[in-house]
Amino acid sequence: MVDREGERSMAERRILNLGIDLGTSRSVIACDNGVRTFISSYVGYPKDAVSRRLMGKEIVFGEEAIKNRLALNMRRPFEKGMIKYSNYLHDKPEEFRQHKETARHLLEHLVFLARREEPDDCHIRAVVGAPALASTQNRKSLLEITNGIIHDVMITSEPFAVAYGLGILTNALIIDIGAGTVDLCRMQGTIPTEDDQITLTKAGDYIDEVLLGLIKERHKGVDVTLNMIKRMKEENSTISDKGETVTATFPVHGKPTLLDVTEELRQACRAIVPETVEGIRTLVASFDPEFQDLLKQNIILAGGGSQIGGLAREIENYMRENLGSGKVTKVEEPLYAGANGGLMLCKDMPDEYWDELKSTGKQPGASQGL
Ligand SMILES: Nc1ncnc2c1ncn2[C@@H]1O[C@H](COP(=O)(O)OP(=O)(O)OP(=O)(O)O)[C@@H](O)[C@H]1O
Ligand SMILES: [Mg+2]
């Protein structure tokens, strides 16, 4: 059997299902052939002929790029969960074009890692996570980078993908704490609409900036980069008052010096709590009054930021003070929860759904057709 393109028919072709989470900090892919992997969302391009020789390739991804960053022009293609400069299409078209191209390189690489030995003509379907309230333009840009790499694409809100993967479809509020955004999504047994979701931009990157500022303020002459701060935070992050003292060695006037950063770390990690609880309040207050308590008792944290020690307890305390009560838990696999859910959604959608998506171009949850 031969289809329009002269290839094997859909019925004969292997369908590869993917769940993809293109993150500001990490990009994750889960595939129904068993591959599950992630890379740091950094892409490096050799600066000159010597660095090209050193690297032996034209594009370097993830940790390898970070390690060799002095020889590379580095790009982090996503910011606040979307392709960088997406909101400055007219003011900075060249920067946007470059970052879009880089996002495409990253996606291509992830799909390459997932495909393994799959036949060249396999049909690739993917559910790609985006911030809860990504604009129509942002979703469109995301869709465009998948052209030629993925055959059928559905863009969905990242916390919805998490909820779907956990099988939690009603009376729950998912909070995905990423690097660029904190995404809140209320589940009430249907595909969430705009009213069910909130995107906040004080997330992991914001914690890093606050922490850098606090450490520089307290320890004059300290010389640290955001990258060093982020690493230190990930190794030690805690919000609890009962935690141990946290120290870090950073150069001060050129000399490695042991610094006590316990209080700065705690303060910086706490910085995202008030706004997050305000987000919870908005979604709870506009919920059916009979179910508001159920929602407050079922707050689920996901994303890399959910690994901050004591964060669930801190949010509970803050909720108790401001909303009367609250129960917060964390997902078991914060790194893979979004991609896993995307993969499940991808596999569960019937062929007719994908056909409809293709013919109408209308993505679920988008305010206007794309
Ligand atoms: N152990 C940890 N403690 C505290 N924060 C952590 C830890 N591990 C990762 N993070 C932070 O989590 C954030 C990354 O989380 P995640 O991988 O979910 O984000 P992302 O999907 O790349 O970002 P976004 O969803 O905003 O695009 C970063 O800010 C990172 O520093
Ligand atoms: Mg994310």
From TrEMBL:
Q: Does the keyword Transmembrane helix apply?
A: no
Q: Where in the cell is it found?
A: Cytoplasm
The alphabetized UniProt keywords are:
ATP-binding, Cytoplasm, Nucleotide-binding
**Ubl conjugation listed as a keyword:** no
Per UniProt, what is one Pfam family of this protein?
MreB_Mbl
> Which organism does this record belong to?
delta proteobacterium ML-1
Q: GO molecular function terms here?
A: ATP binding
Query: What protein family does this chain belong to?
Result: Belongs to the heat shock protein 70 family.
Q: Which InterPro entries match?
A: Actin, ATPase_NBD, Heat_shock_70_CS, MreB_MamK-like
Q: Which SMART domains match?
A: ACTIN
Entry protein name:
Magnetosome protein MamK
Q: Which gene encodes it?
A: mamK
Q: Which PANTHER family does the record match to this protein?
A: CELL SHAPE-DETERMINING PROTEIN MREB
User: Gene3D superfamilies in the record, alphabetically?
Assistant: 3.30.420.40
What NCBIfam families has UniProt attached to this entry? MamK
